[in-house]
Task: inverse folding
């Protein structure tokens, strides 16, 4: 295993939700994702993969263990700096897209830079770049309701790309799409990966995960297996 | 067009500096206003409470100020330097008359501009001899000095006032109410009325006396005419005194004793404009009451805003979660929702001030008052709307900011 630059490091991460008995959603997860990797995190529902996404995305803090994003230890960061980490280092792609209906595609993508302090001109310029990258340069003025599901998901991906994040976290990105557009979305992730982006795709779909260079299987809050199918790291 | 891959722009040597999350104030404001603009009906309805409260308060302040200004103008116009000396009547209080030389004595007081005595006559005032003598219509006859109009700062509406010549003859000038009740609208065609048993020719009709309503109901004749034709005793019942404005109080102190040196306690001295001053004071008491009611409406409006904001926070969990995922801090979320409440209340306040001002203008004009819109009402209206908005928005904003992002994103 070549020693790349670690973008994401989890060390013995435990996440427990209070209750009787307490629910242990993550039970000692240790994981490292290097720059330029495309990783599928696979598991059935309730396996803890959503909790993993939240912890990795710094939306939730672990009960114990260490999470590092780009070398920054998450537990040491205040809310302000944690939010900054999300605005600069992480790009989220959600299953439900979470696009603002009243805004054009361009403005939706530009909101990805809202909390970085960038000015409106720069935001719109970079939003246009990101939309071009996902092949929607001709749809920038359209509202989400005027776009197909696949196009909406591509707008959401452009929003995740626009801040040039260290890592893109995609939560069931094909969950609301038919198999054809789902395939196209995965092709887009593979293209971005080929250009050097670091991407973690969370899915319950084993088939879909099998097409990715690295698959991390998770069950009952533990990592079951971690396989590389190709020499992905060297790419 | 060369399209660079955003992801590729971050090379292996790139540093993963976190920095701090920041957003421009304008962006927060835009987010707040945008969300209000998306739900115009809800925005309008939730701002309505504050609008009504502020409109009520502005209108109350505006109207009371306009009416005060009008009263003050009236007082300034009429002057506060008019004093009256009235003869007391009743057991131990005098026989209803002052000494005949009262006005001469009073005119010797230094700072006096004009003195006029009025002698109330017991003779009836009738339109003609066919009228039932008991149906006087509340009118009375009075003998007056020629200086009366100067002292009371009044003038004739029609015809002319008595002069040295006509004061000796059976000639009468009617007060405004007296003319109306006698059915005499014009002079010059030689109309006559019956005072006692003598016919008097009407030569003039007076404008109303704001400070001496008694005279409005009187038929006024000259002193000599009263003595000649009605055989009246010329002891004045009332003396009107126009004092030098700077010495009104001094004059007032000595007036009773001067008018009736033998029985100064029988002479009642008063200042007619005091009644208007009392009206001013009474108005302010009502103003406080209505202002209080407006404040209650404003408070209810604030509760309405808080209510709508709390519902909005619940509905917009997805948006809050997304914003947190995009890097918004708790402070940013709190700020956005607080600004939204402020904008809502501010909008309500602004419309309220406009509405209140409109009501003031329309009502004041319909009353013939000058329009006064006190700055304190306008500025105070907007400021209190904003304060209410801040208070109402605080709890929902804090609640929104404390929503955990994972919970907010679970839909």
Result:
């Amino acid at each position: 295993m070549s020693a790349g630059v670690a973008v994401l490091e989890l060390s013995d991460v435990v996440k427990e939700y209070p209750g009787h008995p307490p629910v242990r959603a993550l039970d000692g997860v240790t994981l490292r994702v290097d720059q330029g990797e495309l990783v599928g995190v696979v598991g059935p529902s309730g396996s803890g993969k959503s909790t993993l996404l939240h912890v990795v995305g710094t939306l939730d803090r672990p009960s114990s263990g260490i999470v590092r994003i780009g070398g920054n230890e998450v537990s040491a960061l205040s809310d302000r700096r944690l939010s900054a980490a999300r605005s600069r280092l992480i790009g989220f792609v959600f299953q439900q897209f979470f696009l603002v209906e009243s805004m054009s595609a361009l403005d939706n993508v530009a909101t990805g830079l809202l909390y970085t302090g960038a000015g409106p001109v720069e935001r719109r310029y970079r939003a246009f770049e990101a939309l071009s990258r996902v092949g929607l340069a001709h749809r920038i003025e359209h509202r989400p309701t005027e776009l197909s599901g696949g196009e909406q998901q591509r707008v959401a991906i452009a929003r995740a790309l626009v801040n040039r994040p260290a890592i893109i976290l995609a939560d069931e990105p094909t969950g609301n799409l038919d198999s054809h557009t789902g395939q196209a979305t995965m092709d887009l992730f593979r293209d971005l990966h080929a250009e050097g982006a670091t991407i973690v795709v969370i899915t319950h779909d084993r088939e879909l995960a099998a097409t990715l260079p690295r698959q991390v299987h998770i069950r009952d809050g533990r990592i079951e297996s971690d396989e590389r199918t190709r020499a992905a790291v060297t790419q | 067009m060369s399209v660079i891959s955003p992801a590729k722009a971050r090379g292996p040597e790139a540093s993963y500096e976190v920095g701090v999350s920041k957003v421009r104030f304008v962006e927060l404001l835009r987010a707040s206003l945008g969300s209000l603009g998306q739900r115009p009906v809800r925005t309008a309805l939730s701002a309505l409470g504050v609008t009504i409260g502020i409109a009520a308060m502005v209108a109350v302040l505006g109207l009371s100020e306009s009416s005060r200004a009008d009263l003050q103008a009236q007082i300034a116009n009429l002057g506060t330097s008019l004093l009256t000396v009235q003869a007391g009547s009743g057991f131990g209080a005098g026989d209803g008359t002052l000494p005949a030389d009262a006005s001469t004595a009073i005119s010797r007081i230094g700072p006096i501009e004009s003195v006029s005595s009025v002698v109330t006559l017991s003779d009836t005032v009738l339109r003609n001899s066919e009228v039932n003598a008991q149906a006087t219509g509340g009118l009375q006859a009075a003998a007056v000095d020629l200086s009366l109009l100067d002292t009371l700062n009044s003038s004739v509406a029609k015809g002319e006032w008595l002069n040295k010549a006509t004061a000796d003859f059976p000639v009468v000038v009617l007060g405004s109410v007296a003319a109306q009740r006698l059915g005499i609208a014009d002079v010059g065609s030689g109309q006559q009325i019956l005072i006692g048993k003598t016919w008097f020719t009407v030569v003039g009709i007076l404008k109303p006396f704001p400070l001496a309503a008694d005279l409005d109901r009187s038929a006024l004749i000259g002193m000599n005419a009263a003595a000649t034709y009605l055989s009246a005793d010329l002891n004045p019942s009332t003396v009107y005194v126009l004092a030098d404005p700077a010495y009104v109080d001094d004059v007032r102190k000595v007036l009773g004793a001067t008018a009736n040196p033998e029985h100064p306690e029988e002479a009642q001295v008063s200042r007619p404009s005091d009644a208007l001053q009392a009206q001013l004071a009474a108005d302010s008491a009502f103003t406080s009451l209505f202002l209080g009611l407006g404040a209650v409406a404003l408070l209810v409006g604030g509760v309405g805003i808080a209510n709508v904001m709390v519902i909005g926070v619940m509905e917009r969990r997805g948006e809050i979660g997304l914003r947190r995922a995009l890097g918004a801090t708790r402070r940013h979320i709190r700020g956005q929702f607080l600004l939204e409440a402020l904008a809502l209340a501010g909008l309500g306040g602004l419309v309220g001030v406009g509405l209140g001002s409109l009501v003031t203008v329309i009502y004041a004009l319909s009353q013939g008052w000058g329009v006064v819109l006190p700055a304190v009402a306008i500025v105070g209206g907007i400021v209190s709307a904003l304060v209410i908005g801040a208070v109402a928005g605080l709890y929902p904003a804090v609640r929104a900011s404390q929503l955990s992002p994972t919970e907010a994103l679970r839909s």
Remarks:
- The longest helix of chain A spans residues 179-194.
- Residues 6-98+164-228 of chain A form a domain with the Rossmann fold fold (CATH 3.40.50.300).
- The helical segments of chain A are 49-56, 79-89, 105-110, 120-133, 149-161, 179-194, 206-210.
